[in-house]
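Think of the structure tokens as a kind of shorthand, similar to the way a musician reads notation: each symbol stands for something richer, in this case the local conformation of the backbone. In the example below we present two proteins back to back. Begin with the first one, reading the sequence and then the tokens, and try to describe in your own words what changes along the chain.
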Amino acid sequence: MVLTLGLPDWLVLLETRHPKTIQLGLERVGRVWSMLGAGVDFPVVTVAGTNGKGSVCAYLEAILTAAGYRVGLYTSPHIRRFNERIHVAGRELDNEAIVPALSVVEQARGDTSLTYFEHTTLAAMWLFCQEKIDVAVLEVGLGGRLDAVNLFDTDCAVVTPVDLDHMDYLGPDRETIGHEKAGIFRPNRPAVCGDRNPPDSLIARAQALAIPLLRLGRNIEVERRTNDWLCRVEDKVFPALPYPAMLGAYQQENAAIAIAALYSLRRRLPVPMAAIRLGVAQACLPGRFQIVGSEPLRILDVAHNPHAACALAANLAALPRTGRRLAVFAMLADKDAGAVIDALVGQFDQWHLAGLSGPRGRTATRLAEQFAARRLPISIHVDVASAWQAACHEAKAADTIVAFGSFHTVAEVTALISGKSDG
């Protein structure tokens, strides 16, 4: 019966069957992968980190595609459709491709228990093997060392900035978390670090493996100019780069991290300068300081931890302030709402608080408890849709509305704007 399920039913099954949403470890996924009998005969770029992973993956995909490579991209989470997670040759795979892959993993797993993420990771990699891709770009789901993506040996390991998030699983401080992220490093394989002040544990791991580590601020540099920017990686200069389509000053750094990864793989995956320029200009990812309307200006951002909130605050500070600013804010219960609020104090004239459903959800009333001592103007709404509609009704043409706090927050506003939900 399982083999006849459509994709929505498959996803419900995978979400509800395993007793834990997250269960780190490679032994179970490794056992099932060996039963699948697929062989990875293409280079792999693995991207870990606290923030910026999705953007770096988008730049890698866009540049490699512009260079003529058939790219397999696996990311998480998605905003509207599960299909967003699996790309081949620059396109989301459709249900008709994904469902058979889920069925193949189901048959191979026997009585081995897999989480939603583990099952779909194996399905994506099995698909990439069938699709004869030239290179895979894999985004780590959580951490690195014990994440299902780390089952596959990387040819270049990328770690974006490291900060505090998922501390219940990864540890209480940056050093412990950095150790987990550095778990994707491999002997004799290059690595890239996009953190200007990386944890010592990450540097120590690279030194222990005696691998070359390209570091932002050391041998990766970004130089901004009036009409373009350039990237230096060691002695190589990548000049006259267009500003990315994705907004935010940090996007040049994300693009530079991707360029450095490709530089480290230049002998195996040569990329012409024209492809780098085209990929940087075209790479796009929803929910990253994404403008979805004007008069009032409407912005969506998936910022859901303190580091990302600081980046959002910097982006907002760089915008001309033409009117009032309204926040539509909802966060999961296991996130540090207080630190996110503190990073954005002074940026908003009104906070519209919303509840998120699901086992990890936080009600607007519980979220409001974080505002009691901060004396910020708030209103409480049962869900994101109600909060967004209230903000839109309140806002005047010169105002700005920003919805943020979770991928779920952005997903619900995106569905409301489009007039439908794709699940």
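Once you have a description of the first chain, move to the second and do the same.
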Amino acid sequence: MNFIFHRRDWRFAVRLMLAGLAVLGFCVCAPAQERPTEYQVKAVFLEKFGQFVEWPDHAFAGVGSPLVIGVFGENPFRDALENLAAKDTLNRRAIVVRQIKSPSDLKGCHVVFIPASVKAREPEVLAEVHGLGILTVGETDNFIQNGGMITFVVEDSRIRFEINDAAARCAGLKISSKLLALARPAAAKPPE
């Protein structure tokens, strides 16, 4: 399938790729121990996804309310996500990262990351946020087939992502066509 990109789409793709590559550093000859970890790269993408999502009007308490990224369970990002969020804004909104221990604490989040370490609780978390206008991001097999919206996939040692746009629309979220164009095609849903 051939895709035709307009000039602005190419600029968008280049900006998103540069944001991902920024984590890699500027020196090609850097020692292996200085290469970014998988979660440093995922943190860049997670923090940038919010730029390409429209939330329903009721999602924010006010004009100056921050965008809240919740990390459910153990935080695999260490300080990488918090450091990125502290340096960035989204449509003049501060970005705040919260540690979430219980599904009942998910309200007030705009993005929720569900790491593989809490795979057993994934259905509970997805059920809790269903219809609340919260962008769900995960990293386990079948995450989007189970109702999640964006899942990270490691392919040829690169971090890619798949998107379940139908789940996002059901939650009242609108994912930019630019982000949809960069996503890897989602795997087919397994037969039931």
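Compare your description with these statements about the second chain. The chain has one domain: 7-182.
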